[in-house]
Amino acid sequence: QLLIIRWIQLLKLAIVLPLVYFHWAPLLTPKPWQAWGYDPQRYFVQAQRWAQAGLTWQTRPIGAYVGAIYYYGALAHVFGPSPAIPALANTLTTLLATLAIIRIARGLVKPPARRLWLLGLIVLLPDIIWYDCLSSRESLCLFLITVGITVIMSVNKHLLSLKLSAGRLLVFWIALAALTFTRATMAVVLVIVFVIQMAMTRQKTYGLASRLIVVLLVISALIGSAVATLNAGSTISVTNLKEENLIGRSEEHTSELQSLRH
């Protein structure tokens, strides 16, 4: 039954690609009559610049939510500057997040339900389709927070429980670190979910080493999230002003050339 999801995914691609080429791509070039500076527009432009510079450390973007810029910059460096690349990557990560949710739901239902494929319709929600088309941080955050939660969860006798191991904790830490650079408030949410899940699970299941790792992980995550949140507040306005200043200068230069021609 879950194979139906592949047809749902094909339907989504048939919606996403035309939206990218006929609606989103034209918005990536600043025009005098068009408001410019929407976050996904800035992420795309900054990611392309960094990719063209070879992803060098000296030219790396600095500011708020740089995780999304680093992600899309790496994609542009490997696959090229097409606006379809972020859309295809977002579509894939959203599918993986949906499959992770279905995996958890499958263990909670007794007997396994035949209509779990209906959860695959999540990928066709209008908001998800829209953000998957863009160079947005929303799709990336959706994937990271879903992976971060589901990787440490298992289903035992149709009840959710926490399952810790070195590999699972490493994946959780990577997702947490990426969320901190992409949107720090979402990293805090992930930490809270983890702490709640720990509180609901019997402590005697884990040894002292595991509990120490968890405590250090939570403390470092909270400190990192707090620092990133404070940094975001001070840098996002500067980043926006720089972008608006550059666009404003470009528009003034264009108007001056037109006046000289006349």
Brief summary:
This protein has 262 residues and is mainly alpha-helical. Helices cover 70% and strands 3% of the residues.
Describe it.
- The protein is mostly helical.
- The chain has 9 helices and 2 strands.
- It has a two-stranded antiparallel sheet with strand order 1-2.
- Helix 4 packs antiparallel against helix 5 and helix 7 runs antiparallel to helix 8 (184-200).
How would you describe this structure in keywords?
9 helices; two-stranded antiparallel sheet; mainly alpha; 2 strands
Structure classification: mainly alpha
Shape: globular
DSSP, total strands: 2
Distance between the termini: 67 Å
Q: How many H/I helical runs? A: 9
Radius of gyration: 22 Å
Strand content: under 5%
Query: Which residues form runs of ≥5 with pLDDT under 50?
Result: 232-254
| Order of strands in the sheet with most strands | 1-2
Query: Helices and strands, in N-to-C order?
Result: HHHHHHEEHHH
Mean pLDDT: 77
Helicity, as a percent range: over 70%
Major sheet description? 2 strands, antiparallel
Element layout with pairings:
Blueprint: H1 4-24, H2 39-52, H3 66-79, H4 84-108, H5 126-133, H6 137-150, E1 153-156, E2 159-162, H7 166-182, H8 184-200, H9 208-261
Antiparallel strand pairs: 1-2
